[in-house]
């Protein structure tokens, strides 16, 4: 029986994915965490914890180094809220182009008897523009960016994309009409609107700074519905002050953005839809079950992708440091136990490696001794033995 501990409110449809082999919130030594926004940085991860799955995209609330050292795989749910973010960005593009915020505020402040005549007289100050024929620069063409780019094309916009890390699989999801730029500066050079959709990491911190903003045309409008810190807010405010940026829309508030007439901050609602919560919880639950039952890894944050059909009777999985001679040390332990290897696979991601070894015959009396022997290898973080059912 596998034990799962949940944090936050997890959509019931996701929890319903778990089979009878799983118990929820019944043990202080869980095999898995299913979380959303809880901050785990101050938590002591139990040694029993084999996997953390976040029902969402960002993993800033998870101590990745601590998890890896504990032999705990960390997964997110890429794409689960992509449509929600896309729809919000497209909606805000329309809001921005038609000055809907200012127009609604005006109407709310003028409710006197002659409001109809007054608004008819004043409404020209809210004249907007149409998105048809305008240019949108999309920085990052992954799950969300590709959807935004395709939707903008359907609205008749010209779309220019920039993504130096675009995978072959992701490229298939992007309409051929999306133009590709070789740099951010080239992507934003003629853009009426700029939207950013990249993950937050060391390479993307302040990705759009003073230089990139200066490359945008006068009166461009900027959207950040990716992560806080990807856009340099100080540079944006400076550009707004000079009139270079007409308006900044973001899902990530900071004190310096408060009470700025040309800044609209939404309360981190990009992926907050009922559908996205169900998608994330469902995907996270399925990820937990796949990893615990087969050891296969796909789209993990701290482990390499490694999927091997589980056809043998038994499977050993080993999380270890990516250092020389590890595979031979592991196989030597199996050879000493007189085991023949049916299938073996190994992959690495940065400083962490992952090895899967399948065997057909195993003496149950010696299995724990073998696990202990593998765990004694200094660079090993976790060894698991899985039985094929």
From TrEMBL:
Known EC number: 1.1.1.399, 1.1.1.95
Reactions that this protein is recorded to catalyse: (R)-2-hydroxyglutarate + NAD(+) = 2-oxoglutarate + NADH + H(+); (2R)-3-phosphoglycerate + NAD(+) = 3-phosphooxypyruvate + NADH + H(+)
Keywords, alphabetical: NAD, Oxidoreductase
Domain ACT: 315-388
Top-level taxon of the source organism: Bacteria
MF GO annotations: NAD binding; phosphoglycerate dehydrogenase activity
Biochemical pathway: Amino-acid biosynthesis; L-serine biosynthesis; L-serine from 3-phospho-D-glycerate: step 1/3
Keyword Magnesium set for record: no
InterPro entries reported for this sequence: ACT-like_dom_sf (IPR045865), ACT_dom (IPR002912), D-isomer_2_OHA_DH_cat_dom (IPR006139), D-isomer_DH_CS1 (IPR029752), D-isomer_DH_NAD-bd (IPR006140), NAD(P)-bd_dom_sf (IPR036291)
Enzyme class: oxidoreductase
UniProt family annotation: Belongs to the D-isomer specific 2-hydroxyacid dehydrogenase family.
PANTHER family: FORMATE DEHYDROGENASE 1 (PTHR42938), HYDROXYPYRUVATE REDUCTASE (PTHR42938:SF47)
Function: Catalyzes the reversible oxidation of 3-phospho-D-glycerate to 3-phosphonooxypyruvate, the first step of the phosphorylated L-serine biosynthesis pathway. Also catalyzes the reversible oxidation of 2-hydroxyglutarate to 2-oxoglutarate.
Protein name, entry field: D-3-phosphoglycerate dehydrogenase
Species per Swiss-Prot/TrEMBL record: Lactiplantibacillus mudanjiangensis
């Amino acid at each position: 029986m596998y034990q799962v501990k949940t944090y936050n409110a997890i959509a019931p449809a996701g929890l319903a994915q778990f089979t009878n082999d799983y118990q929820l919130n019944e043990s202080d030594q869980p095999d898995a965490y299913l979380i959303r926004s809880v901050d785990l940085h101050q938590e002591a991860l139990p040694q029993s914890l084999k996997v953390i799955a976040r029902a969402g995209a960002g993993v800033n609330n998870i101590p990745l180094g601590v998890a890896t050292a504990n032999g705990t795989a960390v997964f997110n749910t890429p794409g689960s809220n992509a449509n929600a973010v896309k729809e919000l960005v497209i909606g805000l593009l329309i809001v921005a182009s038609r000055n809907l915020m200012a127009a609604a505020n005006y109407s709310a402040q003028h409710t006197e008897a002659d409001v109809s005549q007054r608004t008819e007289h004043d409404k020209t100050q809210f004249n907007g523009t149409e998105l048809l024929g305008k240019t949108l620069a999309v920085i990052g063409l992954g799950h969300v960016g590709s959807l935004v780019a395709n939707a903008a094309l359907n609205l008749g916009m010209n779309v220019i994309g920039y993504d130096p890390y675009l995978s072959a699989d992701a490229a298939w999801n992007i309409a051929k009409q999306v133009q590709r730029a070789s740099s951010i500066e080239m992507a934003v050079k003629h853009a009426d609107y700029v939207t950013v959709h990249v993950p937050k990491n060391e390479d993307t911190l302040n990705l759009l700074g003073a230089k990139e903003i200066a490359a945008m045309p006068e009166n461009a409008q900027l959207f950040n519905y990716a992560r806080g810190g990807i856009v340099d807010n100080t540079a944006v405010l400076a550009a707004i002050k000079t009139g270079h940026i007409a308006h900044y829309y973001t899902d990530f508030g900071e004190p310096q953005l408060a009470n700025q007439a040309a800044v609209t901050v939404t309360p981190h609602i990009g992926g907050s839809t009922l559908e996205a919560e169900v998608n994330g919880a469902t995907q996270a639950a399925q990820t937990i079950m796949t990893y615990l039952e087969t050891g296969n890894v796909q789209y993990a944050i701290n482990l390499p992708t490694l999927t091997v059909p589980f056809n043998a009777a038994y499977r050993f999985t080993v999380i270890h440091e990516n250092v020389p001679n590890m595979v031979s040390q592991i196989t030597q332990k199996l050879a000493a136990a007189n085991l023949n290897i049916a299938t073996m696979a190994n992959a690495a991601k940065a400083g962490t490696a992952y090895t899967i070894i399948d065997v057909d015959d195993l003496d149950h009396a010696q299995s724990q001794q073998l696990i202990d022997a593998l765990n004694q290898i200094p660079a090993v973080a976790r060894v698991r033995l899985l039985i094929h059912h």
